[in-house]
Amino acid sequence: MGVVGRKTEELRDEVVGHLRIRRRIRQWIAIGFVFGLLIGAGLAAGAAALYWPEKDEPLKMTMREWEIPVKAPAVLSGPATFTVQGLTCDIEWITGTHAEHFAKGRLCRVKVSIANNSLATVQIANLEQRLVLADGSRLGMDLESMEIKRQLREFTLGASDTLVEDLWFDLPQGIFPTEILLRANADTPQGRAELPRKDWSQR
């Protein structure tokens, strides 16, 4: 083989070697890219697990003094879901930032969470809520207590929002509630949630 032939073969081998090296570099870059995507996906999943609550995880609410938990099923009223969480009764008087209020009989406080399940706002009219007493009568909210405790009579709940509020009622002394009737507003159906039976005068 002449000098020209050897030079040509050496040049070809050199070109082939460079091509192989470039091919391997591209392969390693592709492998690194895939591993980077996998690691990123794993980190994103881990962050989501930390900051995004599981759908089946119940919302744990702290009970206040004398408050007892309510385990009644949620009430669906139109696009809103009402969940009664706590009940406190036989309250003789309350205070607020500017006033104090003595019950005509005994006050009952019902803690309720309201979730808007729709992608639009929903009007909540608390004046529609009724407390059912042991004698079968139905009682509307005590507006003075609601005002003193800064609870809203009506409001607009945003899309997919959840709000926890207190509903206040003034009951005749010695009579206790058995159920609460809840609805979003006058245009939505009414549902009922059973309340724990308890002689609050013995607390």
Mean pLDDT: 84
CA radius of gyration: 33 Å
- Counting structural domains, the number is 2
List SSEs in N-to-C order: HEEEEEEEHEEEE
Largest sheet features: 5 strands, antiparallel
**Low-confidence sequence ranges:** 52-58
Helix content: 25-40%
N-to-C CA distance: 111 Å
Q: With helices defined by DSSP (H or I, 4 residues minimum), what is the helix count? A: 2
CATH architecture of the largest domain: Sandwich
Principal-axes shape call = elongated
CATH class of the largest domain: Mainly Beta
Write up this protein.
This protein has 203 residues and is of the alpha+beta class. It has two domains: 1-52; 68-202, Immunoglobulin-like. It has helices at 3-51, 143-148; strands at residues 68-69, 75-77, 80-95, 100-116, 122-125, 130-133, 138-139, 154-157, 162-171, 177-182, 191-194. Strands 1, 2, 3, 4 and 9 form a five-stranded antiparallel sheet that branches. It has a four-stranded antiparallel sheet with strand order 7-6-10-11, with no helix packed on it. Strands 5-8 form a two-stranded antiparallel ribbon. A hairpin with a 4-residue loop joins strand 3 (80-95) and strand 4 (100-116). The radius of gyration is 33 Å and the shape is elongated. The protein starts with a helix and ends in a 9-residue tail after the last strand. Mean pLDDT is 84; it is low at 52-58.
Quick structural overview:
Helix content is 27%, strand content 35%. It is α+β, with helices and mostly antiparallel strands. It has two domains: 1-52; 68-202, Sandwich (Immunoglobulin-like).
